[in-house]
Amino acid sequence: MSGIGISRRGLLAGASALGTTAALSACGAKTGSGTSSNAGAQADTSGDTVKVGLLNSLSGTMAISEVTVHNALLLAVKEINAAGGVLGKKLKPISQDGASDWPTFAEKAEALITDDKVVATFGCWTSASRKAVKPVFERYKSLLFYPVQYEGLEQSPYIFYIGATTNQQIVPALDYLKKQGLTRLYLVGSDYVFPRTANKIIKAYAEAQGMKVVGEDYAPLGSTEFGTIVNKVKDAGADAVFNTLNGDSNVAFFKEYKSAGLTAKSLPVLSVSIAEEEVKSIGTQYLEGQLTAWNYYETTPGAANTEFVAAYQAAYGKDKPTSDPMEAAYISVYLWKEMVEKAGSFDVAKVKKAADGIELDAPEGKVTVDGATQHVYKTARIGKIGSDGLIEEVWNSGKPIAPDPYLKGYDWAAGLS
Amino acid sequence: MTVILNQSFTGISIGAVLLLIALGLTLTFGQMGVINMAHGEFIMAGAYTTYVLQKSISGAGASLLVALPVAFLVAGAMGALLEWLLIRRLYTRPLDTLLVTWGVSLMLQQLARDIFGAPNVQTAAPDLLTGNISVGGITFANNRLFILGLALLCVLGLTLILRLTPLGRRIRAVVQNRDLAEVSGIATERVDRTTFFIGSGLAGVAGVALTLVGPIGPTMGTNYIVDAFLVVVVGGVAQLKGSVITAFALGVLQSVLEYSTTVSVAKVVVLVAIVAFLQWRPQGLYTLRTRSLA
């Protein structure tokens, strides 16, 4: 355990650059050697309350999205406590700020597990942050519930993926565009793992399905200069833009898009990371008529959703929208509760074993946990952004789609990894 | 051809943003030799001023027009305060100004986070500035034209002040030879503070302009501060026209490279070009001949 000692001291020393380097190198060393033998021993379940970790970016470029997820998690914890807790124990949420910075996520995840001794952690948004914390959760054999759609091609025994994988969001979105006759795509994304991997999948799909990718551009996360990218999009002769920008780069992108005279009619943009909260802060005047792909919208019909929206707005304000990642975060706590109760224990190994087949009448419709992949069966929904800032569903898959993180069910995806 | 023209306009608009941000630095770093790392936070102060005004004044257009002078005063006052509290004690120690103002910039970022919350916010642009004008296949975005006009207006105003007013003459005298200016009866301390007020105020104006392009957040200034220093250094310390030429040249270079490669590659190539240029001409594009012994 000497590696941990070094990294923690380095971090405590306060020299952040130095500290993160030490933490990162220590991570690598520790996962490689696989020293941990005290499986799940970190979790403290001895008292009347058990601690759950909430790990989101409460500051920085991702805070625009992640604060809402944090709110939804708190709501679920509060509701579960009001209903008597889990196995008779109340939940005590411990919030940590990942600050839109991946090494910070790893550091805070470790603090949650070793200092706070949480029984499970909920959170992360960007794939970069998830990849940063993955070795930490694996090393300590602690559970992370990840609430955001992502690029797939990953499976960790200690992560439950409650958001969509690619075959539940991106593939249906491409199917939809193809059905509309929009076959010449321009790919715009933030420069990190999710957009790059997603675009690799899109290009493989396009090649197999007779679509054409006419351009591909990445902007640094947090970038606000989109003049050239929009010019390139305009000149490329595309039918549609597939947008995998994350965070508030979207604000600058859509401002530039409108300034350049491009509209949802002339050149639609399909986004996979803009939900109701982002629509509201970007401004509907920039987004009206543009398309999104998710599994849940505030407008999704059903009693469970009516209740969820009402509860959320009662807690955080009448004008606060709900969104897909928030819904996934909210149900992730409930899914964990069901798993724990089925297992009759907080023990990680037992909870994992109990996970398969857990069902929930979620706001998005029925979801079922697939124990083999630790993903969830979800319904795909394409939506159109309205002038009121809400997203109206224009298509759905009709029934929950089985998760296929490695796209094994698609011939065209054979070469991807 | 239209591609080249469109890209040139994009480059010029990037240059205009750079210029607006670098203008204040040209005064405080170029003329006074103070490495003010808090300049980015004065930009942020200008942007948040716009945000606050838009919440209290109805009408995006009216609030934007009010925001320009108010942001100038707010950021200017912050700059003058910083000069009075800390920087005047450090005029002979430029590296210390770097550390001190960096500390101040971190404090200001945290202050903004406490006041306005950590998530970034946005302002709505007036309808007039969300559209575009198309001339012969070239698209001129109205918000970019507005920023370009604003930048040129600021350059013009600053030039006139430095060239024609008694204050401008005093500033130039202090820059050229502080000691001689002092014995000639110029209150150099007051000139310093006024210069800092104007330089920081211009950062505030830049902040207003940036609300038309992207989101407003506690760290928005840090995104631009390095580019702004590059413009001033390459332009030649203490020379307005150097900054103007450099800002537009870097903007056009960046946009042309972005078009033919990618955003990240363009950034790298621009940086390499700057390093190469400074090897060849360490003093920058233009230099000021002074009678100072230093």
Provide an overview of this structure.
The complex is a heterodimer of chains A (417) and B (294). Chain A has 417 residues and is α/β, with parallel strands linked by helices. Chain A folds into 2 domains: 49-164 and 301-378, Response regulator (Rossmann fold), CATH 3.40.50.2300; 167-295 and 382-413, Response regulator (Rossmann fold, 3-Layer(aba) Sandwich), CATH 3.40.50.2300. Chain A has helices spanning 2-12, 16-33, 63-82, 102-114, 127-140, 166-179, 193-209, 227-235, 249-259, 276-282, 284-287, 303-316, 324-343, 348-354; strands at 49-56, 90-97, 120-123, 144-146, 159-161, 184-190, 212-219, 240-244, 269-271, 291-294, 359-362, 365-370, 375-377, 381-385, 391-396. In chain A, helix 3 packs parallel to helix 13 (324-343) and helix 6 crosses helix 7 (193-209). The longest helix of chain A has 20 residues, at 63-82. The radius of gyration of chain A is 21 Å and the shape is globular. The relative contact order of chain A is 0.13. Chain B is mostly helical. Chain B has one domain (20-122, 130-235). Chain B has helices spanning 2-31, 39-56, 60-85, 94-116, 142-164, 166-176, 178-183, 188-210, 220-235, 240-260, 263-280; strands spanning 132-135, 138-141. Chain B has a two-stranded antiparallel sheet. In chain B, strand 1 and strand 2 form a beta hairpin. The longest helix of chain B has 30 residues, at 2-31. Chain B is globular and about 60 Å long. Chain B starts with a helix and ends in a 14-residue tail after the last helix. Chain A: InterPro entries: ABC_urea-bd_UrtA (IPR017777), Peripla_BP_I (IPR028082), TAT_signal (IPR006311). Chain A: Keywords: Signal. Chain A: This is Urea ABC transporter substrate-binding protein. Chain A: It holds the Pfam family Peripla_BP_5. Chain A: Residues 1-25 form the signal peptide. Chain B: It comes from Streptomyces phaeolivaceus.
